[in-house]
Amino acid sequence: MRTAFATTLADAMDEDARLALVLADISVPMLHAAAERHPTRVFNVGIREQLMIGVAGGLGLAGMRAVVHTFPPFLVERPFEQIKIDLGHQDVGAVLVSFGGSYDMYAVGRSHQSPSDVALLDSLHGWTVHVPGHPDEAAALLRSAYAAQGRVYVRLSIQSNTEPQPVDPSGRLRIVREGRRGVVLAVGPMLGRVLAATANLDVTVAYAATVRPLDRTGLRAAVLLADQQDLVLVEPYLAGTSAHLAGEALEDVPHRIRALGVGRDQELRQYGSAFALNAAHGLDVPGIAASVAAFLDQGR
User: Fold this and answer.
1) Where would you tag: which of 30, 55, 93, 275 has the fewest CB atoms within 10 A of its CB?
2) Pair 268, 277: CB distance under 8 Å
């Protein structure tokens, strides 16, 4: 996905003189083509993430569209106040592009992990959030983000589904499989695991690569078509991040929701591969299968 980012950005900067890239010493070699072709529109501020967002806000006020990139804890958590004020309060657009998911960079520890990034941005007004599940989806969503006007967060990861899905930048849900016992909504790179985990269950599998705005109309329609109004959310970040929106979509319908994602109960302090951490959070195929089956059985 990071390669898709580098390629699409260089090409977009060829075509759109509004675009400027702001970096904080991350992915500089990968983005060499953009810097070489457009040296006056690429700014590397060093390891100064708050300044990075401030520069993006200034570029926005000057009529430019800044594309800002680093790892998620340094893009969202560390400069959160600047995101709130320099972008949100001043009501200027920008594209924040992270790479590293919740814990892709497992070897460098907690400082490089950010399962709460989407939940943090969810506390601010006016953000579009894309969570592609495949490099081809990432390329399409990045191109739409560059061409847009508002504030967009694109969350890239090393974890990927085997096959891409058609994506709608407006956020419309895609029904991948139909069933009767409930709905499982898979976000981004969770789709492949969800399909494998529910292969023997009579459930609808819906897919979202855009989570803000969440397609509440499409989600409601899918849940109402099932015999059981049961919904399982499977997100690659903090568990329950989208539960409040799903609840609002179904507020006049008796329903049950189970939210799967990175655990909230305690900080996981063990080290291991991203795939081992998936298992520890119940986000591997066996963990998802067990959680979904147990939840649906409780609703009988």
Assistant:
1) 275
2) yes
CATH value at residue 81: 3.40.50.970
**Cα angle vertex 50, ends 49, 56, to 5°?**
90
Residue-number span of the structural domain to which 45 is assigned:
2-156
pLDDT tens digits, residue range 82-101? Answer: 999 999 999 999 999 999 99
Tell me which residue has tokens 């490099």.
Answer: 135
Write the burial class of residue 69 (CB in 10 Å: 0-12 exposed, 13-18 middle, 19+ buried): buried
pLDDT digits (tens, 9 = 90+) for 124-155: 999 999 999 999 999 999 999 999 999 999 99
Rounded to whole angstroms, the Cα distance separating 70 from 49 reads 9
Across 22-31, 99-108, 222-231, 261-270, least confident range: 261-270
Asked if residue 168 is part of any domain, the answer here is no
The pTM of the full predicted model, rounded to 2 decimals, is 0.96
Domain assignment of residue 226, yes or no: yes
